[in-house]
Amino acid sequence: MIHSLFLINYTGDIFLEKHWKSVINRSVCDYFFEAKEKALEPENVPPILQTPHHYLINIYRGKLFFLAVIQTEVPPLFVIEFLHKVADTLQDYFGDCSEGVIKDNLVTVYEILEEMLDNGFPLATESNVLQEMIRPPTILRSVVNTLTGGSNVGDTLPTGQLSNIPWRRAGVKYTNNEAYFDVIEEIDAILDKSGSTVFAEIQGVIEACVRLTGMPDLTLSFMNPRLLDDVSFHPCVRFKRWESERVLSFIPPDGNFTLMTYHVSSQNLVAIPVYVKQNISFMETGSCGRLDITIGPKQTMGKTVEGLLVTIHMPKAVLSANLTATQGNYTYDLATKVLVWDVGKLNPQKLPNLRGSLSVQSGAPKPEENPSLNIDMKIQQLAISGLKVNRLDMYGEKYKPFKGVKYLTRAGKFQCVLMFTKSVLGSLVPGGLTHPTEGEPCIRADLDGGRLSFPHRLLHGLH
Amino acid sequence: IFFPCRHDDLKEMLDSNKDSLKLEAMKRIVAMIARGKNASDLFPAVVKNVACKNIEVKKLVYVYLVRYAEEQQDLALLSISTFQRGLKLIRASALRVLSSIRVTIIVPIMMLAIKEAASDMSPYVRKTAAHAIPKLYLDPDQKDQLIEVIEKLLADKTTQLVAGSVVMAFEEVCPERIDLIHKNYRKLCNLLIDVEEWGQVVIINMLTRYARTQFLNPNINESLLEEGGSGDKTFYGSDGNDDDDEDEEDKEKKAEAAALAKRKPYVMDPDHRLLLRNTKPLLQSRNAAVVMAVAQLYFHLAPKAEVGVIAKALVRLLRSHSEVQYVVLQNVATMTIKRRGMFEPYLKSFYIRSTDPTQIKILKLEVLTNLANETNISTILREFQTYIKSVDKDFVAATIQAIGRCATNIGEVRDTCLNGLVQLLSNRDELVVAESVVVIKKLLQMQPEKHSDIIKHMAKLTDNIQPMARASILWLIGEYCEHVPKIAPDVLRKMAKSFTNEEDIVKLQILNLAAKLYLTNSKQTKLLTQYVLNLAKYDQNYDIRDRARFIRQLIVPTEKSGALSKYAKKLFLALKPAPVLESPFKRDHFQLGSLSHLLNAKAGGYQELPDWPEAAPDPSVRNVEVKESVPEWTKCSSREKRKEKKVEKPFYSDSEGESGPTESADSSYSSSGSDSASASAESGSGSQSEESEDASDSEEEEEEEDKKKVWKKEFKKLAQGSEEQSSESDERKRARKSKQQKSESESETDGDEESDSESSQSESDDSESEVDVKNKKAVQSKAPSKPVIKETKKEKKEMSLLDLDDEPAPSPQVTPVNSFLSSSLVTDLEGLSLSDSVLSPAISPSGTQKCYELLHRISGEGLSVEYCFSRQPFGPDANMVAVQMHFANSAATDAKNLHMEDVKLQSGMRVTDFPEIELLPAGETTTAVMGIDFCDSTQAANFQTHSRKFFVSIQPPVGELMKPVFMTENEFKKEQ
Question: How close is the nearest chain A Cα to the Cα of B489, in Å?
Answer without folding.
Answer: 35
